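Slide 14.
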Amino acid sequence: MTQDSTIKAQMRQLIQILAKHNHAYYVMDQPSIEDSEYDQLFHQLKALEEQYPECVQADTPTNKVGGKALSKFASVTHKVPMLSLGNVFNQEDLFAFARRVEERLPNQKIQYDVELKFDGLAISLWYENGVLVRGVTRGDGETGEDITHNVKTIRNLPKVLSSAQGPVPALLEVRGEVLIPKAGFEKLNAENEAKGEKTFANPRNAAAGSLRQLDPGIAASRPLAFYAYGIAQCEPHHGQTTMFASLEWLTQFGFAVGECHFICDSIQEVQQCYEEINAKRANLSVEIDGLVIKVDSLKQQKQLGFLSREPRWATAYKFPAVAALTTVENIDWQVGRTGILTPVARLNPVAVGGVTVSNVTLHNIGEIHRLDVRIGDTVSVYRSGDVIPKVEKVWPEFRPVEAQEIHLPAQCPVCDSPVVMPEGEALARCSGGLYCAAQRIEAIRHFVSRKALDIEGLGDRWVESLLHLDLLKNVADIYCLHEHREQLLTIEKMGEKSVQNLFDAIENSKKTTLASFIYALGIRGVGETTARMLANTFQTFDALKAADLEALKKTPDVGDITAEWIIDFFQAEHNLEVVNRLLEAGIHWDAPIAPTRQPLNGESWVVTGTLSSMGRDEATQLLQALGARVSGSVSSKTKCVVAGEKAGSKLEKAEKLGVQVMNETDFLNLMAEYGQVQG
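Slide 15: predicted structure.
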């Protein structure tokens, strides 16, 4: 696999994970990952993008805020985007934030506005000539949901603005947080429990769920409160010059702001405020998960500006998590869709940060060894970011004599295939990727994809229906579907023509190439390019199956770990059963052509930029057909760089190293000389 494709694959994986958790947090109000883990993933993606700008994906979340609005409410586009905030978690990070501010505002006096960071739902309120006309959720930062009918039920929210201190603006957009104060939350849960109804896990979920009710009567029955934290628009301008003053200006119209609000002359004073508020956090009337630190001067805020998704002049300073003691009663091993085995600790239920915790993931066997956690141990459990629980530490002094050490299972708990974990890897996997029920959706999706067996029409909808009918236990069952025509015709919206088209596509897929078949098997680490290298090296599938570790490692693009993964795959009996069924079903490819010495044999080439006549993948295939090895990075060993339009850092590096550079015209002429394209 080339470096470019590896980087893109890493980015794609991070984008998918972040998108999933963005949706859970911003759209469904059901956070499924702790803030610190999200931040690590986000910063990992951001670091990759900064290092490899040519690989940045179009749908990257680094320039977005949240998730798409739910469809049951009308969508509203924010005229001023509702941006998110960056995070700091300790004094060192806070001081680094201040240094960045000071570097952009040299020789200027800087004061900081310090506010409570509410744990609620961010919304935007529109007032026209003093009348509340619209309430909108943050959504994805660009588009939110119209929840005006519910916003108008919030008791402490002014519906009509009036002030003895000055005129009411013609247009005023106020941003703030909706939440349920602690006293109201406890009363709400007590009333629900008395009525035998569901209680809420925490105030944020209760507030968010209330605002997303179609019946405004439900929202009206909940003790919701709104706290303002900023002004997005004001016409005519409010005349205030600082953040602190603008929030005080809002209070004259009846808006509530946080019960603690400070102006600090230095970042050291900000740290002192943080420590004071953290110490009395439990006595506040509302739940908070940190402080928001802002440059106070609105003029300086404008000078500092914004990054793609957050202001440079503000950050959230998160509080440490709340911890509790409990015991580990057992360990279960769960198998994910990609075969990863995850240990889950079953705990003696304990309340942590207002939520009862009974299960917690231990991530992998390495984490178990790092913590030295055993069944029967007493552990500290905390909820980082007050969301997802984690085991923080083990208390060996409380360890009972009968405590049991935890070992990685030898066989997959789902399919009994061997569990493998190559040296240097942190994650253990089931080796039965083609057979394991936990992995079959992912295996089928990959097997039928365009660059694999290319079974057009067998999309997720078909697969879900076939799984429901128990007709697809693994990919080999695809070639038995013709035996179940009558059952397939019972699937909704799947008529005779659709079924026949599917059968035709399956039949057509039987004629493939050795490289495509190897790729379709979904062997860990074997992408499209590596599959092609394996096919070129071993020429027959039997030779590949029989290859030992040393022979595999001599194949271009196959490193030590990938070679081990290939060996593990073919040593899994269940995988071989599925492979044999596929071959017996008639999958075949042309006999290999005896290799001849190729004109670019062994040379390292790099393709960068945009080519007008073909994609980079096609150019890569042309070079590989002539024996070249196409790399994702430029080095002194690079033979030549093919540079298209907007070639960036790779072209610069090639010129610096004195590596030959070829434009698209010269490249096409070279390919024509070797008969790869028409002249």
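Speaker note: The two ends are 30 Å apart (CA to CA).
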